[in-house]
Design brief:
The complex is a heterodimer of chains A (220) and B (354). Chain A has seven helices and six strands. Chain A has a single domain, classed as 3-Layer(aba) Sandwich (Rossmann fold). In chain A, a hairpin with a 2-residue loop joins strand 2 and strand 3. With 220 residues, chain A is α/β, with parallel strands linked by helices. Chain A has a six-stranded mixed beta sheet, sandwiched between helices. Chain B folds into two domains: 164 residues, Helicase, Ruva Protein, domain 3 (Orthogonal Bundle), CATH 1.10.8; 130 residues, Cyclin A, domain 1 (Orthogonal Bundle). Chain B is globular. The N terminus of chain B is likely disordered. Chain B has 354 residues and is mostly helical. In chain B, helix 7 crosses helix 8. The chains are: A alpha/beta (220), B mainly alpha (354).
Chain lengths: 220, 354
Amino acid sequence: MNKNIEATFKLLFIGDSGVGKSSILLRFTDNCFLPPEDTGATIGVDFKVKVQRIQDKKYKVTIWDTAGQERFRTLTSSYYRGAQGVMLVYDVTDRSTFTELEKWFDELNTFCADPNIVKMVVGNKIDMAAERQVSKEEGDTYAKNHGALYYECSAKTSLDVDQAIKALVSEIIQRPTLWKKSAPSSSGSSNLFSNSNGNTRVGSNGGGGADGEPFSNCAC
Amino acid sequence: MSYLNNGKHLISEPRVSEDASDTVSKSDRSNSTNTSQGVRVPRRQSTASIRPVSVASSIFSVIPFSCQDRYSKIVSAIELRDVQALRELAISDGGLLNTNLRRKAWPLLLNVDSFYMYKHHDTPHRDEHQVDIDLTRTNLPRMAGCVLSSELRKRVQKQLGNVVKTILRAHPWLSYYQGFHELAMVFLIILNGGNDSLRATESAALFFVRDAMGDNLETIRTQLSLIYTLLENEDPELHTLLDQLAIPPFFAISWVLSWFAHDLVDLNDMARLYDFFMSSSPLAPIYVAASLVSHNRSKILGSEPEFAVVHALLVGLPQGNNDWAEILARSSEWMEEYPLARLQELGNVKLNKK
């Protein structure tokens, strides 16, 4: 199976604390949602992987989930390198997390030199419709102005989580210059985030399932 | 007080020799007779609506025969208030054994004055919003034989919020970091709420993890690099692999910032490490981190040499099947062999230490 992996992509989740980055990731890789008391703040950087099938081709998607608190940004920035896609997440029920996106874009532009990198703004928690503070139109316009794709989703109900990530990956596939190169230009350690085909055994903590199937190590 | 009593019986508590309610009443008494210190205030003025939590009861374990000698030594050191002896016992194999002993030993090790009461600080700290976000998602540790009701869980989280905010308000120059709440949680549970939990956490904040509570985490970044310095000298093969893969040592950041409370699932393991950390130099978590990595060398060297795979493996190490006694023993050896000054020299870094 692993020999059929077309390419390996690196995605990065950034955004304010508590907007649901880790929940989106867990929904995508393990198809489950944990109540707040069973989750924990992400400290540093977490990582998960899943094989995603798109148009009969398999892609290994590695997702790096970062801590939201500002003081961790200088540390997490070292994980930006080599990413082909970035998801900037906010909470549609908390306007401040939306306005903070500006800072996250600054961060991204500082640490990710590649102008081709695929950006996607994602508004999470749309299941809490009554508490919504940022409209879909506003989010969409904002994303367009920043040259980013836009999606809204709910990690809790799973609505549009897979679709958002699939759209992000599909866009990366459309931009072969992002990934069809033998080595990244800037860094000396060329093998780090490149598209290592084959040999894709996932570490015990990686948590990913094969072929887009939900992985069953989740407690829920 | 009815609240306190409710809390006490959610999980049956064998015997608590001195719980926080005792402490409080003693404090009130002492306050009425001794006002010379000025810092003592009547309980009603304290912000700390921090009451016994009583969830650590399951680890009042029976002391195995093989530990009887250690047990007596700890009891005697507590009675004599012999901090040096306690420190040695806390560091050496087995540590302070159980919650009952820790409840008496930790305040001594952290030089906590159980009778000191906090003054109320009305001004909220700038990081309280972040604290609130993290509190609701605090994972409580696993305790053998205990199932935490969601009601109790919420109560613990609320008390945890009180501890963290009280400390931040009292020391507004400290900044909160994600993970500090988990560091505080273990003190809260082991020390059964109350003033001791608050003062112990404060002591840890001021004297052990203060480097992480400044304006940024740059000092921590430098400290983490010392993990690789240790490995370079003690486990070159492993160091070479991690170096080739260019894995930054940030996989260990939660280990260091939360004294592994973020990463471990069992309260006993956490408490054992806390024994060690509060009796050692503030940089001890760095040595333990390096020792833990080296302890798992065959797993790491045998894995697929890919950044993501190895990173994930490293992050998950604390949850693996680890011989903590051996890991801590190795850490102690390294702390002797590579005192901080030498380690900085080897790593070519300079920490701003007083």
